[in-house]
Amino acid sequence: MTEYYWDKQIEYLRNTRGLYYNDDYLQFLVQSVWKLTKPVNMIDYGCGFGYLGLKLLPLLPEGSTYTGIDKGEGLIKEAQEIYSKLQYDTQFYVCDLETAVMERKYDLAVSHAFLLHMHNAKNILQKMKESVLPHGKVICFEPHWIGGMANYYVENMQQSDVVRLGELQKLFEEDLKRTGKDGNIGMRLPILMSQLGLKYVECRISDKVNFLDQNMDVAQKNKLYHSLKEEGIGQNPGDAKQNVDNLIARGLSADEAKRQYKAELAFSSVFNLDSWLMYAPNMKISFGTV
């Protein structure tokens, strides 16, 4: 059996999730936008180690339950270990979400940074809808990569030298054509939700802005810096020929690939623990009612 990629990425997932949301904003969504005032049964598609449950369960009415499903045996084992120490009513299952059929229905079906990895995101979204009771909600936290790339600021650098939006937008679009996976799906999801028959569809944006501040607490600065690096910000692109060849294979021209490599190299050369950096992921939070 082929080892599941995300089972090997648990530390990455654990170390980078804190970049995306402020808890008070999630509380605002739960209480003021979704108006969840009674206990709900929630299912998380592609739950990983249960991150979304850890964020939402403390904010949901007491008595709410959480079911996590994921293809990764290692991820589910990690989730079970984490939640065994908590007092929430939870269940976790290993299953292939592209073929799985849910036998029961829930009040909420949620996903986090999951649909962008699916070849058939619309089909998965349909499954999510079908697993929700009438008047329940489908809620998806998904990225818009090109929007995220536009939300860096590195002090003392010309931004177009380190983040080339034109090449990146083309790269993401070509990746979608080549693989069927859409890293920009966060901006498309409200359309898909409405096309699939969900009602009262809306989209919000995460308010989290990460500030690598040279005057902040040293321990907090170190933690944030290493989280940003694990997210891929300012990473060294490696061997020039191999990197350029890979970018060409993904759809860039030779000149575009060389410019993109040069930008990544420039970013990696200036970004360090002593940098001043702002980064806003702007995760898109789309939701609709069954």
What does the model show?
This protein is 40% helix and 20% strand. It is α/β, with parallel strands linked by helices. The chain is globular. The two termini are 37 Å apart. It is built from twelve helices and ten strands.
Please render the helix and strand layout as text.
Elements (H helix, E strand, L loop, with lengths): L9 H7 L6 H11 L7 E5 L5 H6 L8 E6 L2 H11 L5 E6 L11 E7 L8 H10 L1 E11 L2 H5 L2 E3 L4 H4 L2 H15 L9 H7 L3 E7 L4 E3 L5 H13 L9 H10 L4 H17 L6 E3 L4 E6 L1
Parallel strand pairs: 1-2, 1-4, 2-3, 4-5
Antiparallel strand pairs: 5-10, 6-9, 7-10, 8-9
Short description:
This protein is α/β, with parallel strands linked by helices and 290 residues long. Helix content is 40%, strand content 20%.
Q: What percentage of amino acids are in beta strands? A: 15-25%
Give the tally of β-strands.
10
Instruction: Assign an overall shape.
Output: globular
Overall pLDDT level: 94
Q: End-to-end span in angstroms?
A: 37 Å
Largest sheet: 7 strands, mixed
Radius of gyration: 20 Å
Which residues form runs of ≥5 with pLDDT under 50?
none
How much helix is in the residues? 40-55%
Main attributes?
290 residues, alpha/beta, three-stranded antiparallel sheet, globular
